[in-house]
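Changelog note: in this version the structure field was regenerated for every chain. One regenerated record is shown below for reference.
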Amino acid sequence: MFITNQEIQNFVYSRIGMALVSAQKVEFITSKLIDVLAFYKINVYGITTQDFLDETEKSKRKRRKMLGDIFKLLKLNPEYFPEDKLNLYLKKRNTLVHELYTEYLSGFSEAEIKDIIDFCNEFGKMSNDLESFFKGCVYFCALRHVKDKDDPEFAEFRKWDDHFVHFIKSAIVKNLKNTGKEK
């Protein structure tokens, strides 16, 4: 079967579109997490710090938070949030949004096509991982307001059980790395 150049370009653009949507999902959930954490204006389960609370108060004055601003706020407590992973993700996200054409698509050569598809697939996996981590963190924060997990107000979060497990496992691994106890 013969595949045309237009079909190849359409496939590449579909991968780029998928990567962009995955980035938007991360931006959405991290923005919601910041809102949830800042809403209480107190230390939430040790996740927030005074620096975080001070900075979120300042950032409320901004109309729109950019992903870099959101990640900067989350990095204020490196005990929970994977700073290296956030930095790498932000770099890749910026490449996707601002430099994709110049980095990968100048001529649609076979090598460029492979590289862009690999980039988008890797970025999508990173997005899924971070989205799950942050959904789990939101779930973790929501736990403080329910009497039991079967509470109807918690129904939406029950769909995020796997994300909660991912968050807890990630936080435990991060803590073990920080204490030098990881095997």
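Spot check on this record: The chain has one domain: 5-133. The chain has a mean pLDDT of 77.
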